[in-house]
Input
Amino acid sequence: MIYLDHAATTPVDGRVLDAMRPFWTEKFGNPSSLYQLGGQAKLAVDQSRKNIAGLINARPEEIIFTAGGSESVNLAIFGVARNYRVAPPKSYHLIASAIEHHCVINSFKALAGEGYKISLAEVDKQGLVNIENLKKLIRPQTIFISLMYANNEIGTIEPIAEVGKWLEGLNRERQNQGLPRIIFHTDACQAAGFLNLNVNRLGVDLMTVNGSKIYGPKQSGFLYVKNGVNLKPLIYGGGQESGLRSGTENVAGIVGLAKALELAEKNRAKENRRVSDLRNFLIRAIKKAIPNVLLNGVDPTIIKVSSNKHQVIDKRLPNNINFTINGVEGEALMLYLDAYGISASTASACATGALDPSHVLLAIGRSQRQAKGSIRFSLGKNTTKKQLGYLIKILPGLVKQLRQVKNLK
Ligand SMILES: *Cc1c(COP(=O)(O)O)cnc(C)c1O
Output
């Protein structure tokens, strides 16, 4: 088995599992219970919150635990939108990039159905948004911008800190004009483990992170909510998580998430160097071995990387490789690779079953046919050069075979 789909999900790290285990068994208490067993669980949740806050330069009370990335994103978007709904119904306006994850895009579509105005910001051929584009979309009634930190399909890293800085200035002007403040959210599900999550440096009001992409448990995640930013909850009940996410806490999941983020941060610099070298190797090898392919996203070979800082200047996630292979169905190639024990992905895992071409690839200018002829390899901490060597031995033959079949038809 060669697993090259870490952007879809990662296995749980053994150390994460060890940290979680007691909270399913002997330490199973409800954190809201006042006897010792509950206190033990509460302590673990509090400590996890503190640890995560420390890792992203936030305060503990700014961390709201959720059941994953999609829920955090929904809480951010609907939480802000519904908070403004309280005012007389005007058409409040929200902006996201055109290449956001489906949990953002489909939340926006739902809001549009409720009467909110939405805009999707264009990206360039590499998948980058620019501030000039965003500027043109701003209206007096704009209340929210969602821009992902790194794209899950093509690995493009968006200029979050730059947008954050611009918005800070813009919000000062808007305050003087009596206009609503624009809340800035970033979906950092793919960035966690690879990029700097310091919320002050990024200048974000809200940030989504999940556990299932960083060797933590699935259905774990948090939303960073900057002090002073008001949200309406999605889930009402006993008032857990500062009233923003009721329900008995997933104590084991929270402990696992904190442990996973701690480990990811500890190994980040070293892993980034190792994995980006593997990425560059595979990109070069595919270009060399297969004719008529197009790299989707930023070409790391044309970006200057200073001698020891890989992660800052390189605008592609260290673990992402995404190619359009002209004349091939990505779906078929994925299944062929699976027969050889290699797991890869055609677009985002969430879109499986749907045969729609990827909205991300269309947004960067690929045709429908090219978008369907694309494949993503996403590397992880267990990926070795030997595994990639095997892939590159198999892949050109499979592509040749599939292209011949297509020509016969
Ligand atoms: C995986 C992912 C999500 C969704 O997270 P879940 O935990 O699966 O709900 C959201 N955004 C991005 C960029 C992702 O990669």
